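User: Fold this, then the next.

Assistant: Folding the first:
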Amino acid sequence: MKTDITIYLLEDNSDDIYLFKQIVNADDSCRYITVDFASVTSLQKSLEYIIPDLLVIDLNISESLGLQTLKDVKEISQDLPIIVLTGSDETLGLQAIKLGAQDYLLKDEVSTHSLKRAISYARERSVLYAALEELAIKDKLTDLYNRAAFDHRLENFEADYVRYQRSYAAILFDINGFKLINDNYGHGVGDIILQQVAHRLKMFNRASDFICRFGGDEFLLIAPSVTCAESLTEIIENKRAIIDDKYALKSPDNELITVDVSIAIGGAIRGLDAKSPYDLVQAADKNMYADKGNKSISKCW
């Protein structure tokens, strides 16, 4: 049974489109579904509904020339593998790879064999890069995203706010009395508590939310589409109900212990409580410490 591979082709030359389709259709090992687009705008609209297996883009189209075309496509490509088509300039192709393309092909040298190789290589390389990137942005202890991932994701939420006025909230969590847990039972128990809290935050989450380990015993949640204090309070109290609990686990001496865990939570809404992403996190942090001041220290027994 043939494998179906969907390709989105960014090309505004009808002759080149015809030749490309002839070349891919000559490969009997796969069934290629090629959809062509004459502009980045039309490509973007289609990507909002159907995601292909890869993109093949001509760097020189009427609305954009050279590496700028690749930069424009990268902004909308959702990390899809990209093969660029260029004239006889191999230097431009190599520069495209440095900017994030998986491979390049010279138009005059495209054949069924070279295209098949490029497609296979681009898809494999994309999977490898995604795996390496995932390792770089994940916290090893909790398997949540790390601070670097947060910085990148915050930029995306802020871009949506600036462009579409889509409000979002930042919510900070801090485990009360976490130092006491480490002092009484050791860092091994503290690590288990962090893992269990992270697991609950990850499991009881909206698909659109972003949760990360912010540092130490602090976690941070970015919640989109939060526009008022009532909605923010509802999310905060829901998280508090999920996390505040008695956690049963084994100590390093293999003894069953119970740790009473509670968290301090503070949140803020972009546009309502803060005028910048930095101010947003600062406001959430301030509200979290105000909440911490109203809590008793966690007990261990």
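Now the next one, as you asked:
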Amino acid sequence: MPIKAILTDIEGTTSAVSFVFDVLFPYAQKHLPDFLRNRATEPAVATQLEAARRESGEPDADIERVVEILLGWIAADRKATSLKALQGMVWAEGYRAGQLKGHVYPDAVAALRRWHEQGYALYVYSSGSVQAQRLIFGCAEAGDLTPLFSGYFDTSIGHKREVESYAQIAVSIGLPAGEVLFLSDVVEELDAARKAGMHTCGLVREGASLTGHQAVASFDAIDPAGY
């Protein structure tokens, strides 16, 4: 079956890992405490604070304790959906203020534009929230890339190393898994996508190896028609 859709990871794939760890995480760590103190009663924020309390097992934690918990999760790079949502809100303010610009590799920008023009449906699957995904691509250094994408997926559909997550994404896209090409820099994610029936291609920008999968150093080397 020919490829009709391309599903891509962000961190280490379309964008530098250093952007997340050296720019986004420190920004959230610096601005999250005051953001939560000032906006804790807003419904969208309050919902995520309650989710964080449940996940931490501290349902009665006051705002200062929740701040402490969330900062600890940031330091540990914990993939908590509530944390990702709150980080996304903080980043949104940073992007709107012009303090943040999304990093997307030039080769990824060129390929995504080319594939869109060729008629491939493009989707994103990242552990970062959908909001954060839209911000990276919508406020990218290369301009607004969001018109290129047909949809976004985060861990609310399932974790990235679980086969069922990719099966659910294929259902959501409305295509057989065999018509989807998944791009990532993590072998366990590629393994899960392949077991779900997707085609895979690994990105090895830092020279790592991805055992058992075709791997390339740049989006320039990916030809969806070759799968």
